Amino acid sequence: MLNDVTFGQYYPANSFVHRLDPRFKLLALIAFIVMLFVANNFYALAACAVLLFAAIAAARVPLGSVLRSIKGVIFILVFTGILNVFFHSGKTVYWQWGIFKVTSEGIIFTVFLMFRLFFLVMASSILTLTTTPVSLTDGIESLLKPLKLIRFPVHELALIMSIALSFIPSLIDETNRIISAQKARGADFESGNIFKRIKAVVPILIPLLISALRRAEELGDAMDSRCYSGSKNRTKYKKLRFGWRDLLAFLLVGALIAGVVLLNIYCYNIFPQIYAYIRIS
């Protein structure tokens, strides 16, 4: 049932993206997300898409694995799209009934928004597919190191995020085992109306919650038995260093930022007729 969910899973490979510094990948993801929401036309969005698919190719990660990451948020994407189709205002009205209205501007905005959210989820998936939880923890801790001056628990926060990501595949496997066990006992999760399906999920959630609490307790006992004491007097086995790959990737991301800004500013001057239809306000 949940075998296709890839978010939080690491895909081992020896690629250009895998070898990038985790700190840069985190900053690049933040910059990419900002550019997605700064882009206000399809040309700028296409520039973001080119960089995204170039990163997928450089990561040597199967495109299907990246696309399957959308499965976990498909309901949110569809629900958001439906709301925008029926409630976005516009001048060209195709259909209207009460407060519900379908307009040309609403359809264009919804398509633009769906592409934007698709690219956001795919970019986040690339980060987890190409970065181990340990490297991700080190990168987050290094980026947040200045907050230690105000006694912020940087190491503990990074550790919590890393454990949460590493628990996702384990919980998915546990959910699949519980579903298989319930089906073997005659449980039906696919027939009936939506209320019956929601009610059928309860026998899954309770064992899953118990299993998650047990795993958390076992992890805490393991950390205590190894005398884990947080960031106090801890050293790093592998120190993070920026290399030539990070410099090259930095230049590519910088070119994307410049390209999106220029397309936002000069798109009207280049394609005034088309721009009037594709611009997203």
Please characterize this protein's 3D structure:
The structure is a single chain. With 281 residues, this protein is mainly alpha-helical. The protein has two domains: 1-132 and 234-281, no CATH class; 168-230. It is built from ten helices and two strands, in the order ααααββαααααα. It has helices at residues 22-38, 42-59, 63-68, 74-87, 104-130, 133-143, 154-184, 194-225, 244-270, 272-278; strands spanning 93-97, 100-103. Strands 1-2 form a two-stranded antiparallel ribbon. The longest helix is centred in the last third of the chain and has 32 residues, at 194-225. The radius of gyration is 23 Å and the shape is flat. The chain starts with 21 loop residues before the first helix and ends with a helix. Residues 270-281 have low confidence and may be disordered.
